[in-house]
């Protein structure tokens, strides 16, 4: 029998969980973003090329058709094409000549479905770790209610939901001490989105001191193998892939003075080199603690998080990347003696992500529907056009709020460990 206190916790956790399900569904169905159009377009183009016997010509085909070369790896493009195959098959079989918006809607539904699978795997992982039913529902609800998931990932149709699928599988394998398969799953996620390295590197380094050297080398090989396989396959099957990417960058420089990536790095507080320097220091600390058998349970959460704080401070605030460590933040929050620490953390990262994202969404659609200037560069340009000098204040404030909450949690967690 449940006590009144347990019933109350179960009721609250169930409410948060259901709210998360509804919120993700709302964002996936009703919110839109140019990124979803781009990803759907690439997937459709790859399927068109494949079924017309021109698979090797996909990079130049999609560039000529959309004036936008794919910057996703071969594996990422193939996975997206497989997801989009049902709607493409129906479109061809029934000669519907479906508009791209039909593909976009289907793509968003698929990302939403994968997000729900991610949530289920997250709950299963928590079950393996011994968390109660109430805490599992609460954690899954908080995961879905975070704007990093519902807005930055689901609403934009980002492939980070697919990345999380492999990350959660890797986490479950890690808890079962199947380290080679863990490395393989992390390696696949690394091919889809390279920033998974902030989890892969510390995990492999922290294995040192807990398993023998052979037990570290095998997961390491498994983690990097998918990357090299993807690179070799791309050069063999898509010979003009890298050429198209360089050509797209040259065109962007001619038209706008810089590429999207260069524009992204122009917005930084520091620079990308500082991030990699910080990452190397963090990895060295992990290595030292691992070799000397000084690893604490909190190191698995703290050090990857420090690397991501460095990414936000020195590189960019592309918030859907932070979905990779969001489960760690929730788990760390559960380890706190005071639950308000968890709520402050999630409130901070949600507001920090939500403010600029909503401004981007609103200004983009206003510009697009009323044919106003400022929508050429997707969702970033309108904010700059309409907010002018206040844009920097808005963006910096939200980024600062986001990063400070992460640092506060790390400090609080370290204090809890010392008690």
Keywords for this entry:
mainly alpha; 419 residues; 19 helices
Q: In a nutshell, what does this entry contain?
A:
The chain has 419 residues and is mostly helical. It contains 19 helices and no strands.
Task: Describe the structure in your own words.
The protein starts with a helix and ends with a helix. Helix 4 crosses helix 5. The chain contains 19 helices and no strands. About 8% of the residues have low confidence. The chain has one domain. The protein is mainly α. It is globular.
Number of domains: 1
Described by strand count, sense and barrel closure, the largest sheet is: none
Work out the number of β strands.
0
Radius of gyration: 22 Å
Structural class: mainly alpha
Shape: globular
Helix fraction, binned, reads over 70%
Order of helices and strands: HHHHHHHHHHHHHHHHHHH
Question: What is the count of helical runs?
Answer: 19
How widely separated are the two ends?
34 Å
